[in-house]
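Trying the structure run again after the queue cleared.
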Amino acid sequence: MHPIWLLIPLLVGAVQPVVWQMNVRLAKFTGEMESAVLLHVVGTIVGLGWMSVGLRQAGLGAALSAPWWALLGGAIGVTAMAGMNRAIPEVGVGAAIALTVASQLVAAVVFEHFGLMGSLQRPATLARLAGVLLLALGAWLVTRA
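Done. Tokens:
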């Protein structure tokens, strides 16, 4: 595996506090759901721009071959964004991201252990479960303050 594939998630994670603060600021002007929808529209425009300059693969028509539930990611994404737009002003961006990352890791380990929805199958070893526990402890510590 090329190291760039590890660097990309690190960079995406590092910009999340900035992105969420941008989302929350917009939501103060428009409302939580309106902000989430508007940001997804902007994201769609940018994505179509990237596709127009050649950053694409099979094309949008191939989506018809995907399982029906694969298209629900957009609905989940806009709903989750609206929820975070409401939660962050109450709990803070640090606590919100700590809880998000901890819950994502728990879900990811379960998904990989059982190979759910076509994910890479990796057993939930004692070392992986210890990592989940440590991250959960870290999230708890961050949210206590």
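DSSP finds five helices and no strands in the chain. Worth checking whether this holds up in the mutant runs.
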